[in-house]
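Cytochrome c oxidase assembly factor 5: structure tokens wanted.
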Amino acid sequence: MPKYYEEKEEDGRACAGVREDLRQCLLETSCVIQEGKSPRQCLKEGHCRSLQVSFFECKRSMLDARARFRGRKGY
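Answer:
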């Protein structure tokens, strides 16, 4: 689910909500906090997989011609 913050500055990029949730998920994993690995390494190990797939689907829908009619996926 998306996290909304009152004092957060507006991000006008595509798939901004999914991007922010994926970022927060990675920064809060034990892989980053306890093991001290980078978020990129933790993502490659399979942490936050569902948000990664959602972000990929959102970005892919931007290239899909049908998205003009249906709208972008994501939030």
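Helices lie at 16-27, 30-33, 39-45, 49-63, 67-70. The mean pLDDT is 82.

Cheers.
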